[in-house]
Amino acid sequence: MEEWKDGRVEEPLTTKPFPHPSSPSGFHSSTRPFFRTAFVFSCFLCWLVGGGAFAADWPQWRGPARTGVSPETGWLGRWPPVELWRRPVGEGYSSAAVAGGRLYTLGWQDGRDTVWCLDADDGRLLWAHTYPCGTVEYNGPRATPTVAGNEVYIYSHEGELRGFDCASGRVLWQKQVNVGRPRWGLAGSPLVDGGLVILNAGGAGAAVERQAPHRLVWKSEGYAGYASPVGSTWQSRRVVTLFSASGLVGVDPRTGGEVWWFAWQDGFHVQDPVLVGDGLLFSCGTSRFCALLKLAEGELRPTWQTEELQNECATPVVLGECVYGFDGNGALRCLSVRDGTTVWVRDDLGMHDGSLIAADGRLILLGDEGDLAVVRVSARGCEREGRAPVKVCSGAEKEEWATPPALSNGRIYCRSREGTLVCLGVK
To answer: pTM of the prediction?
Structure first.
């Protein structure tokens, strides 16, 4: 070892169901106690069978809790990884959502978006659904599908919200929520919070009922940012936090009422807020700013701030007392949660910029030119698996790998902006 994203109905669609082998349903994002209990029980069974290791679904943007952290353990058994399958899915920035043995993602080609449902093990097509979607600068969907129970939800950059049956691909409902669309389109992945689907639309979000008649429960004025909403229980109160064009806002998911507000209009708001204890980690790489915010006298105020993390798009990951992220200058940086000071820096990982997720004390790093690396991290430093990053691109032409990877059942899923989806086995 070396040191170391109204009810308009126009359905010139194609929905192609394929048989899927029966498999136990995995964890799906939900606030209902049943799903929490089922998830814990399934993890315990996997732990028994796997000798202390267990697999986990990755059912939405940035994983089960939208923190970029998977609860999966014992997932790394080999490095370098073996490529299991590779297929084109169309242009875009949608990451993979993996649940119950199925993988869901989005892509764009020739004026149409496609929702893909693939077998997560072998990449076989299970079903696909297409619908018209216009062009925009940097073509393709921005949002990642969200799986909850037996349904999967998608949100297009034009504001089309759709719910599908996970197994058959049947369209269950759709609604136009084109509120406050910013320059590069609506980008936030839908968040399921109880009986609502929360969207980063307008200046402080919007909410739609999951059950018929799928009412637009509340909406807001202003323009959206490009980050995804994050739900949490914060100081004993349920709050959804999102980054609009004008700042960071916390709202009551049931009513849309403002809980707090932190004005910030500098830069493009792409990175998600991260809950850290009783504070919020807020970062905006285009304005060279990162801070830990806490509520004081009814207002959010920085307890510390720094310019050390300047990644343009990727949200940092928090593990224990450390914040990890790319600094915009080709280095992986570790900051202290306590005061924001730099703990260590690694500038020799062979990546100029990129995204990251975490599991079992390790970071999975995907560079913007297709370099994949795994590093074990702590406050003491980082240790890289293998001698050099692994190239996930085919090498035929340059591709941009700006979308964070996903991890599920010992497989890493990487997707390029141009539309290459790759599955790599590391068990």
So the answer is: 0.87
